[in-house]
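Summary of Year 1 activities. Much of the first year was spent building the evaluation harness for sequence design. The harness presents a backbone, in tokenized form, and records the residue chosen at every position. We chose the following record to illustrate the format because it has been used consistently in internal testing since the harness was completed.
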């Protein structure tokens, strides 16, 4: 996804001189081509995320379209006051791009995890939140963000994520995507963990269980209709996310169900249960350590359906 974002920002800069790539002393190598070809549209602020966000707000106020890129936890937490007061309060046309979201920096531990960022950004008025699940979705979402006027947070992970879409995919704000239909249970996910969810759904099919899989790239605003329909048609919903279940995708889906008086047989949010990510190692190991492997998704589905106690 990171490389797809960089390609998108490169293509956008070629089309529009107002597009700016801002970084906080990271991504230097991957931005080499951009910096070489569009030096006047690239600014490295050094390890100064708060300054970068405030400067981005000022640049936006002058008619520029700045994309401020750094580690997800840093841009949402270290620079929160600037995001709140300089970007959202003023409704500036700033795009915040966080890389290494969730537990992607699995070897660095909780200090480098971004497992509270969705909750933090959700509470900010006028902030749109996008969580791509694949490179094509990241590319399409970046191009979409450049076209709308207002704050956007794009939550990226890393590189080499498997693709789930055809080349003609178009991102739509406020829309979820049914990747696999089914009437027994609904699995709602955001980010690259959707691949683990699809793996789980395929294994469930071998057991005669048909799971509906919904990718939810737009967290704010969220697709209420697709959630309500899933509740009415399957009655059982599990959300899966690399994020604290408090304030993230699970909370958002639960709010939709409650606000619309949707009666469900069972609902379960899978994610970090009011804790920091546990363990150090590969991404797959960390997901398993924190209850988010395909096998653990399957186990929760079987318990909810009532075939495993």
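For this record, the design step produced the sequence shown next.
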């Amino acid at each position: 996804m990171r490389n797809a974002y960089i390609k998108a920002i490169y293509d956008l800069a070629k089309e529009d001189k107002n597009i700016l790539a801002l970084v906080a002393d990271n991504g230097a190598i991957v931005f080499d081509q951009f910096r070489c070809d569009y030096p006047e549209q690239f600014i490295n602020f050094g390890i100064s995320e708060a300054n970068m966000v405030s400067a981005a707000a000022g640049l936006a106020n002058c008619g520029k379209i700045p994309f401020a890129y750094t580690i997800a936890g840093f841009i949402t937490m270290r620079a929160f006051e600037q995001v709140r007061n300089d970007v959202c309060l003023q409704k500036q046309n700033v795009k915040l791009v966080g890389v290494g979201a969730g537990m992607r920096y699995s070897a660095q531990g909780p200090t480098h995890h971004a497992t509270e960022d969705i909750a933090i950004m959700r509470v900010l008025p006028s902030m749109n939140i996008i969580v791509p699940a694949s490179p094509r979705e990241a590319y399409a979402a970046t191009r979409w963000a450049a076209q709308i006027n207002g704050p956007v947070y794009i939550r990226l992970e890393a590189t080499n994520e498997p693709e789930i879409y055809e080349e003609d995919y178009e991102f739509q704000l406020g829309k979820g995507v049914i990747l696999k239909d089914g009437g027994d249970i609904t699995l709602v996910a955001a980010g690259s963990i959707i691949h683990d969810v699809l793996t789980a759904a395929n294994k469930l099919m071998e057991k005669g269980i048909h799971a509906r899989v919904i990718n939810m790239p737009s967290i704010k605003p969220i697709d209420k209709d697709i959630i309500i329909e899933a509740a009415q048609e399957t009655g059982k919903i599990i959300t899966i996310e690399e994020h604290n279940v408090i304030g993230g995708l699970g909370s958002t889906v639960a709010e939709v169900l409650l606000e619309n008086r949707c009666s469900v047989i069972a609902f379960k949010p899978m994610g970090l249960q009011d804790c920091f990510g546990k363990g150090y190692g590969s991404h797959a190991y960390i997901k398993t350590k924190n209850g988010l492997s395909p096998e653990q998704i399957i186990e929760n589905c079987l318990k909810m359906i009532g075939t495993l106690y």
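The radius of gyration is 19 Å. Quantitative recovery figures across the full test set are reported in Table 2.
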